[in-house]
User: What shape does this take?
Amino acid sequence: MSSTQALLIGAGAVVGLGVFLLVRSILVVEQPQLADALARLATRPSGPHRVPAPAAKDRWARALGRAGSRMGARLPAVGGRVPGQTLALIGWTPEGYVARKLGLAAFGAAFLPMLTSTLTITGVAVPVTIPVVGSVALAVVLFFVVDLIVRDHAEEARAQMRRALCSYLDLVSLRRDASEGPTVALERAAALGEGWVFRRIRDALVAARLAGEPPWEGLRRLAADTGVGELTDVADIAAVAAHEGASIAPTLRARAQALRTQLLAEEEAAANTASEKLTAPVALLSIAFLLLFLYPALARLTAT
Assistant: This one.
């Protein structure tokens, strides 16, 4: 094996490893940190969240997290700054968000020069302007691709929360039919469900209880953190039942049905949009087949 072939194999291996690590860092969702969960449960009514004193071995990680939060608030993004609540909703940390953006931008800036160097070694001459302009353009595109990924993941997470909220409303209404109070109904209904949505609801209710607040205040905070406004409706309905003693089971079932109808309409609209997007490729394929079919006759006419 010649030195040129060895260099090409090594460059290809480095590029492949970089692509694998970057794709994995984008697609793999980070696991929630235990310290963050404990900090949410350590809320007190007299002030903000109390975070335990950091250990010596965690100081570098916390310093990196603070630096990532500050940098993430200053980095440009598609549609404005990406709030920390959106990152927390999809399980990303601010430092992970910054690392993804800068890592993809660095990869985009280095990919074309590496490819050009490999082609130059093999004897293929490439103008200097192509790797320079192409690397800058690719770095900018990959820099903002992360924002699109965050937006898509956040929209999917909110859609999952709304679908799970329909079941939660039905469970709360059944608990209210069993003559349970609003507070007990909200907490026991959340304990019956599984999945990350019900875990978030349970955490919000537990945090409100530890803070000495009614559970609907925890639901309001969860609605503000996740951007799911339907949780605020549930909190308002529960607050009315607690203060006025009204029967809210029919209201909860009607709200769940209305939410299901809304989600179904959104899914039908998304399906229709996807079907319309398939029309253009099919039309282009038909035109290509037609041109391929007519080419021999056109070629004979042109030759004569």
Residues 43-57 have pLDDT under 50 and may be disordered. The chain has twelve helices and no strands. The chain has two domains: 3-155, 159-276. The CA atoms of residues 17 and 232 lie 46 Å apart.
